[in-house]
Amino acid sequence: MLLNGLASGCIYGLVALGFVLIYKATEMVNFAQGDLMMLGAFVAFTAIELLGYNYWVGFAVAILVMAAFGYLLDALILRQVIGQPQFAVVMLTIGLGFIFRAGASMTWGTETRAFETPFTGGVTRLGGLVIANVSLSIIAGTAILCAMLFAFFRYTRIGVAMQAASQNQLAAYYMGIPVKMIFSLIWAISAGVAAVAGLLLAPVALIDVTMGLLGLKAFAAAVLGGFGSIPGAVIGGLVIGVIEQFSGVYLEEGFKDVAAYIVILLVLFLRPQGLFGNIGRKRV
Q: What would the 3-class secondary structure string for 208-251 be?
């Protein structure tokens, strides 16, 4: 149960990571993040099942296609609303989510899809435990991706530039950083991370146009971890996944579906900044 909860939490954490990356850089809340995950899963299905690519090639194709899609999404649409009220941005991203779901249903249909992975059907035995390889692949994939993102933001010039732009856009611009391009790259990374989440989730939950609604639970994970904290997003996802798994077994029927939202309400009451967030203060 714990491993299954951690596997679900890794998916929530990856989608929440996309929320946080975009918010830290642009102060936008992208409610279409879950739908980007759904599109990434469908792109992988197209590459692997319809075009016949090897799983790992299809994996890479889906990430690259979604990264390019995220870059163009910011450059052509979302950049136009920078400086507008948050309400306008929220409504735009919600509307984009509806458009993505409609486009997916017209392109791939409304039936459930699936594709084979190297981990499908396999199990690993540890003593008396029998663990599905799919769950282990989700946990391992999340750990590898988080390590790669940490190294990218810590040790590369572009990663450092992204951190600078997220902390002070004007100062970064005066230092010669192309802030608009950096923002588009952050959207590209966020869409690529969403695609990884979709690829890891697909063998477990299958692929359909409604799988992006999981983004609401990922939003709860981002709030729990602290909306500006990248490690907090992943840890928040793990906590939500474990709570959801255990509540589905030990509590009354129906609690599993609302566990994430009960947690987010408690966090907002007791610690609004989240587990790892900071309270921002301004002098007037």
A: CCCHHHHHHHHHHHHHHHCCCCHHHHHHHHHHHHHHHHHHHHHC
Is residue 106 domain-resident? Answer: yes
Q: DSSP E strands: which ranges in the chain?
A: 123-126, 129-132
In a domain, 174, yes or no: yes
Question: In whole angstroms, what is the distance from residue 53 CA to residue 95 CA?
Answer: 33
CA angle 222, 206, 106 (to 5 degrees): 95
CB 172 within 8 Å of CB 148: no
CA nearest neighbour of 240 among 217, 257, 271: 217
- SS3 category, 132: strand
In the chain, which stretches have pLDDT less than 70? 277-284
Instruction: Identify whether 258 is part of a domain.
Output: yes
| Residue 58 and residue 48 in contact, taking contact as beta carbons nearer than 8 Å | yes
CA distance 29 to 21: 10
**Gap between the Cα atoms of 144 and 154, Å rounded:** 15
**Is 113 in a helix, a strand, or coil?**
strand
* Count of the separate structural domains present in the chain: 1
What three-state secondary structure class fits 130?
strand
> CATH code at 222?
1.10.3470
Model pLDDT, residue 107: 92
Burial of 201 (0-12, 13-18, 19+ CB in 10 A): buried
Kindly state whether residue 102 falls inside one of the protein's structural domains: yes
The pTM score is 0.88
pLDDT of residue 260: 79
Furthest C-alpha separation in the chain? 62
The DSSP code for 27 is -
**Residues 213, 104 contacting (CB under 8 angstroms):** no
